[in-house]
Write a structure and sequence with these properties.
It contains ten helices and seven strands. By secondary structure, the chain is of the alpha+beta class. It folds into two domains: 168 residues, no CATH class; 169 residues, Histidine kinase-like ATPase, C-terminal domain (Heat Shock Protein 90), CATH 3.30.565.10. The radius of gyration is 31 Å and the shape is rod-shaped.
Length: 356
């Protein structure tokens, strides 16, 4: 996890926009001071202390409020909708953000004019008159500058959110790859498979050869696709059929698998996800000829459903639950949807969101 840790440190460098941290306010004040000094030496501001102070306070207040509005509007954008809905949502929030910045800038400017007029001259009767006749053009220029800064803040917020989501996906992907490698060398599954091959070599050599081919196909698929973000749904269905065939040779009629996915070619899925669910069903449930374990896989709306009749083992095998938990996180990050788990007295059902 060294790679992930390093990237998280890099991401933390951009926490200057987090107003819960004192560093954010010091950064804003420092940035405002630099801007005011640049404007002073470029001749855009008067040399008087009051003008410099007013510009500094105005800029600090604007940035603080812009970042506050930006946090509210853009840090809560949900990405669990269609691309068109997300785009419309973001554009609407951007319009609201810029309109808010414009209104806030006007209110702040007038308040500052009243405050400094009262402090310096003790008279505020002509503040609005001077504003509309002498200072309106200056306010428009400063507002356009502020709105440009507001647009920059908007871009930074969106970039930070995308960076954070990508980092989380990378971390989950590393964990998933690690869990996949563990499942590839599952000692119980491999031990039972080797015993099955050993017994078949003498009793049924052709069946033993087919078993070895299916076993190698399963491991080859895991090695080739374990690190991918998504694979065609049909490829995953082919994997679980071969994986099931391995169990059926050993368990005969104790386990059944029914797959009904006629439109599989239109979808994609996270690799090895169905195999994890099939393995969990076999691991945690009893299976006998009198009461076989029945596993069904079928499409339902935009989900693929894995259901099995519930007949839990009296003694459950020790499980960390990391595989299923990690799968839930990866699905949430990639699709914006949740893995749906339903349990009744007779059935255990898991619904995975499909990808396009």
């Amino acid at each position: 996890m060294i790679f992930a840790s390093g990237n998280m440190k890099a991401f933390a460098r951009y926490e200057f926009l987090n107003q819960k941290r004192s560093l954010s306010h010091f950064s804003i004040a420092g940035f405002s001071l630099v801007v005011v000094l640049i404007m002073r030496f470029s001749g855009k501001l008067d040399e008087s202390f009051s003008s410099l102070l007013q510009a500094f306070v105005m800029l600090v207040a604007q940035l603080e409020l812009f970042i506050f509005f930006g946090t509210i509007l853009f840090s809560r954008v949900k990405f669990d909708k269609s691309p068109g809905e997300i785009t419309r949502n973001v554009i609407f929030r951007l319009i609201v953000f810029l309109a808010s910045c414009l209104l806030v800038s006007l209110i702040l400017f007038i308040i500052m004019e009243y405050a400094f007029s009262y402090a310096i001259r003790g008279d505020v009767s002509k503040v609005l008159y001077y504003f509309f006749h002498d200072e309106l053009s200056g306010w428009i220029k400063s507002t356009l500058t502020g709105l440009s800064g507001g647009a920059l803040i908007f871009i930074i917020f969106q970039w930070q959110d995308s960076l954070h989501r990508e980092q989380r996906l990378r971390e989950e992907n590393l964990i998933f790859q690690n869990e996949t490698l563990k499942s590839q060398v599952n000692p119980h599954f491999l031990f039972n498979s080797l015993n099955t091959v050993s017994s078949l070599i003498q009793s049924d050599p052709l069946k033993a050869e087919q078993f070895i081919n299916d076993l190698s196909s399963v491991y080859r698929y895991m090695l080739e696709n374990g690190q991918k973000d998504r694979v065609p749904l049909q490829s995953e269905l082919d994997l679980i059929k071969r994986y099931f065939d391995l169990h059926r040779v050993r368990d005969e009629e104790k386990i059944t698998l029914d797959v009904e996915c006629t439109e599989a070619g239109n979808y994609q899925i996270i690799p090895v996800s169905l195999q994890i669910l099939i393995e969990n069903a076999i691991k945690h449930n009893m299976a006998t000829r009198e009461n076989p374990l029945q596993i069904s896989v079928y499409l339902e709306d935009q989900y693929i459903v894995v259901r099995n009749n519930l007949q839990r083992k009296a003694v459950q095998l020790k499980s960390t639950g990391i595989g299923l938990k990690n799968l839930m996180e990866r699905i949430r990050l990639m699709s914006g949807k949740d893995l749906i788990i339903e349990e009744s007295d007779n059935y255990f059902t898991v619904k995975l969101p499909l990808l396009k």
